[in-house]
Every structure is written in C-alpha cells, then in structure tokens.
Amino acid sequence: MIGLALRGLATRKLRSSLTLLGVLIGVFSIILVMTAMRAMQNKVEKGLGQLGSRTFAIQKMPGIFFGGPEGIVKYLRRKEITLAQAMRFKEKVTLPAEVGIYAAFSTGDISSRYGHTPPNVAVQGATPGVIVANNWLVVEGRPLTDAEVEAARDVCLLTTGVAKTLFPFGSAVGQRVKIAAISYHVIGVIELVDGGDDAQGMVVIPDLHGRVTLMDSANQIVEHLGDSNAPNWNNPLRAQPREAFIPGQFICPHGACFDHEGNIFVVEWVEVGRVTKLRKVA
Q1: What range defines the domain where residue 242 resides?
Q2: What percent of the chain has pLDDT over 70?
Q3: N or C: which end of the chain has fewer CB within 10 A?
Q4: Domain total for the chain?
Q5: Cα 93 versus chain centre, distance
Q6: Are residues 213 and 231 in the same domain?
Q7: Radius of gyration of the chain (CA)
C-alpha cells in the first residue's frame, strides 16, 4: 500500500505538489485566522476591562451621537431616569453582581485651603456600587457607604489628580474641600482605571469655536490643538460633506477625553459625524 502511494506520488508530481500546497495553505490560514481572532479578543477585553468586561450602562442620552441637532431631539424628549426608578431596578434585578447609580451635578472648580482646581472638574452624585461597577480603585481612605447616601452625609471621594492638586503636601483623606461653596469631608481617593478626563495632571477641553485646549493642574494653558480660527461656533463646514473638511483643523469639537495610553479622542458636532484620534507620541 505504501509502495503504491509512493509510485502514485512519483508519477503525478504536479498534482501531488498542488495537493500538498493546498493543505499547507489551509493549515497556515487557519493558524493565521485563529491568531488574529485571539489578538482581537485580547484587545477588546483589555478595552472593556477598563470599565469591567461585564459592565453595561443605562442612560438617557447615547454615549456617542453622529448627526445634526435635528437628530438628537428624539433623545432630548426622553424622560429623565429618576432615583426611584434606579433604586427599583437595583432591587428587582438579579443578574448583576453590583449596581451603581450616579448622576452629573455640575462642572466647576473645587477648592481647599491649599489650592483649587481648573473650572471644569465634573461633580457627580453616586451610590457605593458605582466604584465596583466602574472598576475604580480606592487608593486611600475608604469608599462610600449606603448609610451615608441615605443620610445625605456631607462626604465625598476625590480622584487622584484632583487630590494631588488640592493637597500637594499630604493626604486628602480627612480634609475638607468646597464644591459650589458647600463644604465636604474627604473620606477617600479613587483612581480611575480609564484615566478619566485627565492624564498626568492634564485636562482636555473641547471648544465649539473650533479647537481643543490642553491645560495643566495649575490651570495654565499648555496648547491649543487643531485651531480653525473660526469667528463663532457655527462653522459653515458643519453642514458640508466630509471631503470639505480641512485636515489638522477641528470644526466644532463637542466632546474630548483621554484613553488609558494618553491618546486623545475628539468627537465633533457636525452633520456627518467626525471622531478624531490624537495619538500620544511622547
């Protein structure tokens, strides 16, 4: 049987070579596809791991929106999610290991007797479950408790960047800060795994007039990026096709954030939608 097979290979060399080549190509293709799929899976899991790979959010507005002001009206017409609804959801749901509830209160500066932050720090009200659900790490002090939320205690948590700005010479835990002229007791410091809105003390600010501004922890301007020098926010390029956009210039930046590697993502308010990634090079 073996001899017959060898004679067949010898007499049909081209056919045998093509068959062997096909088998090799097939095997290597499978290996290549599996490797690519594994790499993509690792990248996706790493990205989702910043918030927890099994975390999802329920909110009124979409996380990102492409379209003009007319398209967003349907989202604005949605009813606000109330605290009572959120608490009922938390009581009824059984699948999640933790449910966190939070809402944005304001954006402004936070002050202490040692300093103050830039005027664009986001202030949020939250329940203790938010820390676990968002995969935040308490690096100093302790997290919130349900009893403190129910009693409306004047306590707060600071991010590492804010804590360093307000208390450069020591720990923020046990100190007091003022938010909108109201005094709060700092019980802990958290580290945002996704970097939050700052990176190494920097903050990124989108400007509808057509640029993105970087500021440091001392509230000093570091750089203006992609400045279009537009006279006002209603740049006529907002309604133009993508081919009319000017490379290197923003039109109407509406949102911006750092990722965990320090790159900047900018979302613009234009008719066809535009997301720009500014890659960190140093």
Answers
A1: 198-278
A2: 80
A3: C
A4: 3
A5: 26
A6: yes
A7: 27
